[in-house]
């Protein structure tokens, strides 16, 4: 518009131009007012207000799941002790016997007794040996005599301990002398720590008791008067049996093995040139505490007579001294006799003294009214 007014000023007179300019301004003002008035009169387009719709979600009650039974957690059983069957506690808990002692043949007869070859069952094995039965018909105490270690290939039924069995039978005792398992003609069987041999003795004790009063040669046996006699290995077996049963009333330990199995098998391993005893030496000490008789001397009810030579070069004298001291400290009925200069197996006057002392001991503790 400004350029247009400038052009008009050049064409029209000044007054007219001013008049025209004022009129145009009024006209523009009228137009603007008219537009504003019209705008005010037209109703504004109403923008609908959207009211949000709230959908109320109903509260969902959780479906109750069935109550599951409690999960059973298995109780873990303790690992079985592979040595339990060799323990003193197990030996004390089990039953012995079954079957009978068979008298197979007469081996010898003399003025005092008759010797029979015998056989009896022991935990499925056949155990052989001999029995010396006094010739009279009176009731007699019974002594089971147990031999020491001999190379099984050199052993025979009438071994070196026959000498002692005969002396006891001549003094009026029924004497049973088994060939311990592994010694022909007896069967061989499990024998860790020589426990199997002790089981053979415990089975024999039970059979003597069951056959007492019968019609066979054991019919004259006194079931309440049973004793044990054992040399070296047999002495160690005797010691174990004493800790297991109260049925033995008196026992002689002659140069016996120790009640401590660790000590025994360290020596056996050495004596054998490292060919025997390794399995026993690998057993943990805590297990040996359940197997070794020395830890169960408190169980012993029998009278015990210990005999050992001071010159024994095989089984140390100290072992018998230790057993004697331990039994004495427990107030057990024990006597201990040491023989000057006698070796592992006695001879001469020392042997005669030993036999006399043995018979006297059994007379005092078995052969009583």
What are the key terms here?
Rossmann fold, alpha/beta, disordered N terminus, 11 helices, 2 domains, 369 residues, 37% helix, single chain, nine-stranded mixed beta sheet
Structural write-up:
This protein is α/β, with parallel strands linked by helices and 369 residues long. The protein has two domains: 2-35; 84-365, Alpha/Beta hydrolase fold, catalytic domain (Rossmann fold, 3-Layer(aba) Sandwich), CATH 3.40.50. The protein is 37% helix and 19% strand. The chain is built from eleven helices and nine strands. Helix 5 crosses helix 6 (233-244). The protein is globular and about 175 Å long. The model is unreliable at 1-20 and 35-66 (pLDDT under 50).
The tally of helices reads 11
**CATH superfamily label of the largest domain:** Alpha/Beta hydrolase fold, catalytic domain
The total strand number stands at 9
How much β-strand is present in the residues?
15-25%
**Residue runs with pLDDT of under 50 for 5 or more positions:** 1-20, 35-66
Computed structural class: alpha/beta
Average residue pLDDT:
86
User: What composes the largest sheet?
Assistant: 9 strands, mixed
Span of the ends, CA to CA? 163 Å
User: Could you spell the SSE succession in H and E letters?
Assistant: HHHEEEEHEHEHEHHHEHEH
CATH topology heading of the largest domain: Rossmann fold
* Top CATH class of the largest domain: Alpha Beta
Spatial sequence of strands, sheet with the most strands: 1-2-3-5-4-6-7-8-9
Question: What's the domain count?
Answer: 2
- CATH architecture title of the largest domain: 3-Layer(aba) Sandwich
Helical content band? 25-40%
Anisotropy-based shape: globular
Rg (CA only):
55 Å
